[in-house]
Every structure is written in C-alpha cells, then in structure tokens.
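Suppose you are handed a protein chain with no further information: no name, no annotation, nothing but its sequence. What can you learn? This example shows the usual starting point.
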Amino acid sequence: MRVSRGLRDVYAQKALNQIPRLLGNQDRNPFSPAYGCFHRDYWLDKTSDFPDAVRQFGVHSLALVYAYDFPGNIYKGKAKIRDWAVAGMMFWTKIQHKEGSFDEFYPYERGWVGPTAFTMFAVAEAYGVLKDEMTPAEREKVLRAIKKAADFIAAGEAEEDHLANHHAMASLAVWKASRLLNDDTLLRGYERLLEGYLAYHDKAEGWSREYDGIDPGYLSASVSFLGKIYQDNRSPAILDIMRRTIECCSYFVYPNGYYAGSMGSRNTLHFYPHGFEVFSNEIPLAGAVAEKMLKALSENKLVPPEIISDRYVFYRVPEYLQAYLDYGERPLPLPELPCEQASFERYFNNAKIWIKKTPRHYCIANLAKGGVIKVFDSENGKLILNDCGMIGELSTGEIVTSQWVDPSYTIASSGEGWEVSGNMNRVPSHKHFTLFKNIVFRTVLLLIGWHPGLAHLLKGKIRRMLILGNRPVPVRFKRIFRVVGEEFHLTNEIHVQTGARFSRLSFGDEFFVRYVPQSRYFQAQELEITGYSCDGAELKTLNENGLLTKTFTVKG
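A reasonable first move is to predict its three-dimensional structure. Written in structure tokens, the prediction is:
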C-alpha cells in the first residue's frame, strides 16, 4: 500500500498557482532597460532605488515549468516562458558587482549568501535546463557571471554571518558551479565550505546553529540544500549527517500539523520539503515527516506560497516544484513521529530543548530562549498552551522580554518540568527608518559601498545592532513549568530592580521579538490561544513592591 499520488500533486498546485504572481513581478518588456528584472518595486513602482537580486531566483521556477510535465502546467514548452527565464538570467548578470557579489536589502550590500549564493544556484539550475536554447553569447555571459559569483562565495563569509543554512547554501552553490564549469578549484572551495557548515553543526544532537541556537525552520532548509548535493554525489558522510538532522527536525512536527515557529532562535514557521523527499527512500523518518507536512500544506497550514511576501515567494515555488519531481514513494506504515509515539522524555542538552510526551499530550520547550513552551493535546491535535514568555514596556518606553537567547540564564530541567531564570532583555528591533535616517544611511553607502571590506563591516554592524547580542535590563524573571499528571502549571515571577517601572506587561501568547524577515506570518493556530495582560492594580503592585507572581494552570 502506498500514499496516493493526489497528495503529491499539492506540491505542484501550490507552486503553479504562484507563477502568475512571479511573472507579474517581472519586467517582461524587451525594450525596457530592466527587462528580466523580478523586482516590481524597482522597475515599475519606483519605490526602491536598486534592484533586489534575490528576486532573480524566479528564473529557476520559469525554467522548471517550461521543461517539466507538472499536473495542470499550462507553461510547458511555451517560448515566452523560456525567453523570460533567459531575460531574468541576463538581468542577473547585469547587476553583479565586479568581485562577483549582489545586493538584497540595500545598495552596495555585497551580500555573501543571501543574494549571491542563492541566486547563483538558481541561475545555474535554470542554465542547466535551458542552455541548449540559449545563444552562444548568452551562455558565455551567464557562465562568466556564475564563475565570478562562485569565486566570491568560495572565498568564505566576511560579514559575521553566523547562519548554518547560509553555509549549507554556499556549499550547494559552489558544488553546482564546480560541476557546471568542471572547475577543480571550485571543488576544493566546496569542500572548505562544507567544513564551514559542519563547524555550525551539532553532530550529537543533529541541529545546526542559526545565530545563537537551533531554528528548526532553517534546519529544514539545510536538509534541502544538502539533499540537493546528495542527489549528485551520494556522499555517505552527508547521509550520516542527515539521519541525525532529520530526526532532530521530527521533534518539531506538531500534532496539529504545524511546524517549528517560536521554538526556534529565528522564529521561522516554514518547512522546506525537497530534502526530505530526496532522503525518504533511505531514511524512512524523512518520508514520515514529509508526508505529515504535505498533508498540512494541503490544509493551508505551514507557510503556503500564497501568504509569503514577494521577496521570499521566489524561494518557495521552485522548492515545491522540485519536491514534486523528486517525491519519494513511501510504503505504509510510516515510522511514528515523536508526537505520535507513546510516553517518553527527551532533553537536547546543547540546544536546551525539553520534550515530554505523556499518554495524551505533547510538550516542547526551548529553555535557552527563556522557556518558550507549547503543549498539544495529541489525541485531537489541539494547541492548549502556547506561551512565548513575558513582554512589557517600561516607563522609559523600552520594550523588554524574557524571550531571548541569553547564555547567562540559569536553567534546570527534569522529567517533571523545568526552571529558567535571568534578566529580561531589551528588544532592539522596534526601529524604523525616518527620512533623515534614510538620507544618512544612503550617504554612508555612497561613501563606503565601493569597498567590499567596508561593505561587509557595515553589514556586520547592522546585524549586531538589530539582531545579535544581549541587552539586559534591571528586571529579573523566573519561569517554572511543572507537569502533574495531565495538568500543566506555569509560574512566572518578575522582580523589578532599582529604577525600572512597568507601564504594560503581558504573559504568554504567540509573539516574536527578533528581526527575521522570513518570520511572523499568520497561522490559524494563533486564534486558539490568548495571553494575559496585567491590569492597573497588578502593575502598581509590581512597581511598588518589586515583585509579581502569576501562575497559569492548563488541564488536559
């Protein structure tokens, strides 16, 4: 008995439905100087002063729908689709910097993986599909740009990246370029880059570091990127890495069909399916994860392409198209996912992920992140507790939270529960551009953007300012979670120290504080749980006495 092919078609349907959106974002006028550009804000709306290279990832989708028989594919073999894909590649070569890099978020960014490796991979894949229908001049121009980009990527990151999935994508991009160009120097570069990825990988627990902790959404991206390499080289080392990585990912597949989210260091809700399909024949658990997530996708859970922003939908469409093409037939019964198993306890000591499965419930918490926790009724899949910690506003206007990855936290755990305590941190990402700030920023870009080293120093500074580091405030917190039979008790203590006063304070619910562009998409499960906001009397008690304790009990 096998899983029906109809569910497989969901991959193709979700992707094909977005092709008009991709084409609507592309300048398809051959007489336009931006012909082939997928950044509508630049070429049409004129609200951007530079073309975002990441959107040229659209060439991969166009090449795939031009060449392959997907169910309901009206684009197969259409000359216009081919011409627009080639135009997209040509525009990509046009906006490349001299040293091989590209820009994504601002002019002269010269990004390592975000714009350069991702788009180089997409262009290399599109070129592989369409090269026989391109002119010699077009082929030469694309190959020359791929070589420059691959050399830039192979030189290594110089912008304080700290993102494992970027190192995985850098490995993939240079691997593809080395094969396409038959370049042994790039092959050695790929080997160095893969070692760079492994420096971020926790072999014992199967996860890879995203800034300062585990992020299951981007971990699924690493599975996808390394899976694409594995398709070519069948490396036993990659397969071994993926066995542990896929097992780690499986703990973040929830009974209600959603995945990851606020459990991760970067709050990402997305799931990259292609790698799981690639490995499903050799790692049965990969097939089980893929099947659960595919069913969820068919129910409009996860982060379907239709709700993704214009910048990032370009990534997701070819991911689903490739998942359809490489769908792994999986015999039943599939292995049980952790949320489907009988009672067990698991603690990832390095990641600080606490998991407990009772006969009726599935509990998972990230203690490194201040004790973010989710509890599900595993019988009906309902989310019954979703608590991302405490968030409040001080009288100074600063937003502070317990939801932060801070290595100074004191953490204790057992089979019955856990405790986390430490200082709250100030949230740094609640900042916006003003006209004056934008003028200053653009002026700085004009002054130093010509120099790659200075551009990378600037990007590292921006990342530290918006994302990285700890900003403790004089407010202590403690969170204590206990499992008593099928009841769950969560106690929050706040100790206000000298000089701090709260004007607002909330407990629980789903909220995000770290700046991550591929996060904060709406999911229907948010409607099932509400948080608690302190009233005036409670705030007065906290500010005058310096202590507030709130305990919440959830009965299964």
